[in-house]
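Putative glyoxalase superfamily protein PhnB
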Amino acid sequence: MHITATAVSLTVADPDASARFLVDHYGFEAVMSAPGSFHSLQRADAGVNVVYLATGLETMPPEQRDVTAQGLILAFVVDDLEGELARLQDEGVEITMPLTVEEWGERAFQTRDPNGVVVQLVDWNGAGATMDA
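Tokens:
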């Protein structure tokens, strides 16, 4: 198998609102869209496309049509966590989890898009952080 791209698809009630949130605040751009139904977003540096699908789409198997993206964390590793936190606050984005440092060195904060999808920015620059495999 040779994988040529990676995407995460999230089913939400209002895909337009979630797409606008990532475009406006996280620098993603739309690569394919069907307003009200579907948006595929990308960033050249993210390594993954984010796809928002509307709940109830007939093209989805019946058992998946109304399952939403609850409990999922869409996490992006960044170089300047404090800078991104300040930028988002300046843009009026609600920070739903303050900057937190875990004992293993992960540092992160969270926002939520209009559909409740958690968007987390993270780095591993805290005390105790190692990148050993």
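The chain has one domain: 7-123.
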